[in-house]
Amino acid sequence: MGATEPKKRSRRRFILGGLGITGALIVGWGFMPPRQRLHMANPLPAKEGEVMLNGWIRIAQDGRVTLAMPQCEMGQGVFTALPMLAAEELDVPLAMVRIEQAPIDKIFGNMAVLTDGLPFHPDGAGTLKETARWLTGKAARELGLMITGGSSSVKDMWIPMREAGAAARAMLMSAAAKQWGVPASECHTENGAVIHSSGRKALYSQLAAKAVDSAPTQLRLKHPNEFKLIGTSAPRRDSMEKVNGQAVFGLDARPAGLLYAAVRMAPAIGGTIQNVDKDAVKSMPGVLSVVDFTGAFSGMAGLAVVARSYWQAKQAAAALPITWNDGPNAKLTTEAVFEELARRIDGESGFMYHQVGTPDAARVVKRITAEYKAPFLAHATMEPMNCTAQFKDGKLVLWAPTQVPSIAVSTAATVAQIDTANVTLHVTYIGGGFGRRLEVDMIAQAVRIAMQTAGAPVQVIWSREDDTTHDVYRPAALARFSAALDGDGKVVAYDNKLASGAITHQVLARTFGLIGAGPDKTTAEGAFDMPYEFAHQSIAHVTVPTPVPIGYWRSVGHSHNAFFKESFIDELAHETGKDPVEFRLSLLQRHPRHAAVLDAAVAKAGKLTAGRAHGVALHHSFGSIVAQVAEVSVEGKEIRVHRVTCAIDCGVAVNPNIIAQQMESGIVFGLSAALFGEVTIKDGKVQQQNFHDYPVLRMDQTPEVETIIVKSAEPPEGVGEPGTPPIAPAVANAVFKLTGKRLRSLPLRLA
């Protein structure tokens, strides 16, 4: 090569070179490991008589351990399961561990909930997938969003909480070894004490102050064979408080001088206030003021009446003369939404989430097609939406049942136009979240109202009607299927095309002011990532924007896509003349864990009572594999579910009893939706109001549920949501056996 001839540059070198200094920094950042999650950026001072060993753990003079808790408790059992992780590694009895709400700090940010949102098939591998997960995890660590959702609490905390316990244990052992002048390797820990091989013993409380200066060079987590607490059904730590009334939910906040606010919000989606006579209610008993909170949060228009009691506020709010402008969606209907879904699914190819194989048209002798629908759904949390706020002297205090503490604080600070350092948040118990309290509309609303109450705290409460008509709903969805069979009755091609709104696009816009674009995994999850081994398969989704506010609903896209997919799989089994269970097993040759879960559920379901039928469904969501067998009867037009056998492989079972409870909860929640759940829209307004027209499963309608936990050595996966998706298709498949009718729309109704 001549001296003047330019060197050839590889495409990779060219791209990186074009990025310049910024690109080099990004690449360099990408190769660096994520920051540690053990120590806070700004450590809190230890409380009197306590020693802080890391950002998660403090030890008191009496030996009790205080554990920072970044997750919220909404019935899923994290106030028990997560302390078990720390107690296991720290070698203390669970009873010695108390929890305290974690401060807002990035070490408590949920990394798993973001990495799990990447649209990769679980069977796939390769550099792109691993790089994307690595970079997303690092970005999540930098964002530090404290989120309880996505069935990710135990999964995300599995390592950090164990490391916090193990690090504290190592520090205590090091301190004891130094005090005794012996090698640390001659010491072990047990029941809150360090013990030397000679029998010498020191309690953690005696060593904590000296342990602060210890810096163990090696951190060793216990091998599963060493677990004493993890894997046991330790009793729920929140049960007693909830039974005896000591538990503090959002509605139980009672700061001194508390006032109450009831709201009136635009009845039409996107509606606004045309005019209002605020003076008309100011003479009513207890009424103090009328506050317009329009603009406090994206798309929010309405007023609140502030009074000395909630009843006074509610009565006055109902009497408030308001003329509404129904806005651009005044003619919106449910029928129009589904017509648009059908039009777009007919005319657009959508985003291809998964495609493998090339179908051989010459082999096709029969084609099976089907269309499925799922409606908008409300969350219907048992505790009404509420938030208590006090704005005084430039500082803001909140008492809120929220799933997103860090986002709640930043939103509140933005509304109040103060620094986040001036916001104090008390996260209460949550009387049902199901994804609804991932939203911060109530936070923004309460802050705007509190700014008008002259420093007095105010508790904002939505009625059931407010909640049902102003929810962020599970999206309406449409699914089209086409399968090709050859002359031997074998499925040689499987195609699925879906259409719905994209939840993540809406959430990014209304919560962060960002433009949502690109694929949203929640739209196609449960469809594109199925385990069934069809040689040719293609799964695509068409995003259809909707003015209807949509949000994360328990199990999100899995909730309807499991119904679509598992019902159609049953259709294929019927068309090919095979037993539904055997048909599924034939498609799981390379998925032994899935096959084992299905086998476990079917084996335990046992024999049928006369006049009933078993319906089967298998679904993989949030990292866990769940199979359900529903025992169903039909009397006239009534579908009755008597028993559900549920098997789950969720990796290591931290607390089997809590897992069983969550399967029961998920099944009841999903069955409510399967049999009754439907939100309809007319003239831009949600028609359902309360439990009389948006019913949930009653106790006398609730089936017996038996849960089998399949043993696994894999790390823990999700539990809070995976029990919900399989129940609707399992019931629908049983109904088909009983009646010969294939129900392809939710809720399940026999005409």
From TrEMBL:
Pfam families: MoCoBD_1, MoCoBD_2. PANTHER family: ALDEHYDE DEHYDROGENASE. The chain crosses the membrane at residues 14-32. It comes from Noviherbaspirillum saxi. The keyword Translocase does not apply. This is Xanthine dehydrogenase family protein molybdopterin-binding subunit. GO terms for molecular function: oxidoreductase activity. The keyword Transmembrane helix applies. InterPro entries: Ald_Oxase/Xan_DH_a/b (IPR000674), AldOxase/xan_DH_MoCoBD1 (IPR008274), AldOxase/xan_DH_MoCoBD2 (IPR046867), AldOxase/xan_DH_Mopterin-bd_sf (IPR037165), N-heterocyclic_Hydroxylase (IPR052516), OxRdtase_Mopterin-bd_su_IorB (IPR012368). Keywords: Membrane, Transmembrane, Transmembrane helix. Residues 244-328 form the Aldehyde oxidase/xanthine dehydrogenase a/b hammerhead domain.
